[in-house]
Design brief:
The protein has 278 residues and is an alpha/beta fold. The chain contains nine helices and eleven strands.
Length: 278
């Protein structure tokens, strides 16, 4: 996962750009997507196949990964799985077909979200901004190496998905998780412990590595223990969708989260949604 802090320090005039690793085998699409994202101020590192993408991922730091599903050699699904073995970076998959198999396979492999090609630039940028707002981080280009406290949250993103220069701790307009998670409490549910300040999770004393969306989903549940949350509410509060999204992303993220914190911790309430057991 990208690391949290503001990209603008004392005397700095501008934040470091958000770095996106783009892996797309079609040269025309790769160049057009890279140029479009660069016009929005993102720094794009591009690869034309899965193995090269994996090498670039291992060599550098990136704030978000944009992976095509159909890649030569190591395909996008396999690349996503390999990245998830060691990394928690936000991953957005691109599918030319958008069929159930592509979507489910990508999300099961650890992707945070997906878009269907051909994708409008405005839609792609909106998804990227939404995904970046789910995590607090220091852009890779700037990086070097039950009780509440009074500290403010780490560096935040503005509405464009770029580092916030306002100097404010950041007020979220969302209800539920966003307001409560930043109170920096240590929440305990049986063997599960959540440090909302350090954004760390442990199970039976052992650290649990969560991808950004998995962590935000858990924080949303933890802010509403014992309360049933329907899929549309989770899409709005966790995925930051202002419109009706694909509820499969919720189900598959819950599935991945259960594997990491225990299947019994998140209960399915048929016909309604999910809830975190107290």
């Amino acid at each position: 996962m990208s690391h949290a802090a503001s990209a603008v320090g004392a005397g700095a005039s501008a934040p470091a750009p958000v770095t996106i690793l783009l892996v797309e085998d079609d040269e025309v699409i790769r160049r057009s997507v890279a140029m479009a994202l660069e016009r929005y101020g993102y720094h794009v590192i591009a690869a034309g196949d899965g193995l090269t993408g994996l090498e670039l991922f291992r060599e550098g730091r990136h704030d978000l990964l944009l992976l095509d599903v159909m890649l030569p050699g190591l395909d996008g699904i396999g690349l996503c799985r390999r990245i998830r073995e060691t990394g928690t970076d936000p991953i957005l998959m691109m599918s030319a077909r958008g069929d159930a198999l592509d979507v489910v396979s990508g999300l099961e492999a650890g992707a945070d979200d997906y878009v269907v090609k051909p994708v409008d630039t405005a839609v792609l940028v909106a998804r990227i901004r939404s995904l970046l707002r789910r995590t607090t981080f220091t852009p890779a280009a700037a990086a070097t190496g039950g009780r509440a406290d009074q500290a403010g949250p780490p560096g935040r993103l503005d509405q464009s998905g770029q580092p916030d220069q306002s100097g404010q701790s950041g007020q979220s307009g969302q209800s539920g998780q966003s307001g409560q998670a930043h109170q920096h409490a240590r929440l305990v549910f049986g063997e599960l412990a959540i440090d909302t300040g350090g954004l760390e999770v442990s199970l039976s004393g052992e650290p649990v590595a969560l991808a950004p969306t998995e962590l935000r989903l858990l924080l949303e549940f933890a802010a509403n223990p014992g309360i049933v949350l329907d899929r549309q509410t989770l899409l709005r509060n966790v995925w930051d969708y202002g419109w009706d999204g694909d509820t499969r992303v919720v189900d598959l993220c819950v599935q991945r989260l259960r594997k990491k914190i225990g299947a019994e911790r998140i209960e399915t309430v048929r016909g309604f949604g999910y809830k975190l057991r107290r």
